[in-house]
Amino acid sequence: MPVGDPAQPTRITSSPAVLAEAAALFANASVSSFPSLGNHHRLLYLRLPYRSNASSAPRQRAVSRLRVPFQTLPSDESLLAAFRASLRSFLLAHRLRRRDTNVAAVMGDLAGLLGRPRRFPTCAVVGNSGILLGSGRGAQIDAHDLVIRLNNARVAGYAADVGAKTSLSFVNSNVLHYCAVRSAITTPGCACHPYGRAVPMAMYVCQPAHLLDALICNATATPASPFPLLVTDARLDALCARITKYYSLRRFVATTGEPPSNWTTRHDERYFHYSSGLQAVVMALGACDEVSLFGFGKAAGAKHHYHTNQKKELDLHDYEAEYQFYHDLQARPEAVPFVDEAPGFKVPPVKLYW
């Protein structure tokens, strides 16, 4: 059963709370599985010890519950060892990351995943805003060399407005968790590539427990049913967090007249987070010679997502601040902070389309 809402990327990846969660899982997590009723699959539990109070004996609580196939998956012991190794790499990358904001430099793994050693001439990042409905932008989007879509948004039935071509699916790890637990029972490699199994997925980790989902999907993959997956670089995560907070602070001061120190009265830093769209855009800056943005914005009466009935924006994002970032990328890229810290990096031309 899924834990959490796939639309809710919960925290800034490199925040102290997330690193503490990863450290606790690394030190104390256990993995155990049991046959399901009827022996159709295994029920796998990721657990952590806890105490209800200082004097009580430690008990185990389930951090994640998954249904997994009997075949192809390693033993509980092997899976736990692989999970701890993944957590170790995650912790090292986020604790020891250099202040290296060269977005082009962190594109190496992405280029390998896409099978292309060089930058792409033209890229389209397709947001999920309802402003795309009726836009007729589909053919224009599909004409780009690289098309990035967000959180496995549907294209069937919307191709005239959002296009049909997909080169890369960019998701937060809640999306992987949500679809993996439903599909791993029957579909080798997890049915989490709605655009076809040849389309790779790039994922940022918003809950360290979701690294287990990635391991399970990779373990159940086969040559005939691959699962091309890349976890985003810690430096890219950190850069996106810095950009997002900068624009949110700037907007807060401009709209309220209050000092930046009061920003935390509006935004809880434990949960404040950049959107999937913003990180996909920053990734594209490092991989593309020209970047086009579609479906980033809102209008009166427009749905929040073109493919869902969600009406309200998530409080953990500051969408208005992110829109200011996108406008700066287009109109005055020299004003965009932090990316100029990378020697020789220049923001490519960016164009916003509604």
UniProtKB/TrEMBL annotation:
GO terms for molecular function: sialyltransferase activity. It is a single-pass type II membrane protein. It comes from the Eukaryota. GO terms for cellular component: Golgi membrane. Keywords: Glycoprotein, Glycosyltransferase, Golgi apparatus, Membrane, Signal-anchor, Transferase, Transmembrane, Transmembrane helix. It is found in: Golgi apparatus membrane. Belongs to the glycosyltransferase 29 family. This is Sialyltransferase-like protein 2. It comes from Panicum miliaceum.
